[in-house]
Amino acid sequence: MIGQLAARLLRSRYGIAACLAAVVVGVLATTSFVAPADDLTPEPAVAPITTVHPSVGDDGESAPPTPTLAALPGASPPDAVARRFAAAWLSGARTPAGWQGRLGPLVTADLADRLADADPGSVPATALADGGGVTALGAELAEATVPTAAGLLRLRLRAADGRWLVDAVDWEQA
Description:
This protein is of the alpha+beta class. It has five helices and four strands.
């Protein structure tokens, strides 16, 4: 008898409205317990920006120190090694064995391995031009630029075993 009364009540529009109201109240109650309470504490005050009188000078972050190349006693400087490498890279008879023999004393073992299968005939330039220079990237790392008639040869030099050796080669077409 109570079951029939409950079934009849749930099938009526009042019963459906009561069920929906119970679901809404349940959802609201659950979210209010699960959700964090609003933080009513005030935000910390922001410190005012301080200014410095112009006569004091720049108080900003200082520039990092410019690296200087390590002095290697008795070794050729990086710019001379770069020019010798570029001359050997571009020079004369280009048999693979002769070319690699001229480059061998000027390169690291890693670069020598990478150049083992290189074709000397694929070198895009034939003559050096004036100019170029060396930029220190660290005490034992430098980048040299060597201009040629057809573009710019970029070389990375590394201090190894008490001398400067070419470690990487890049080419920029003019």
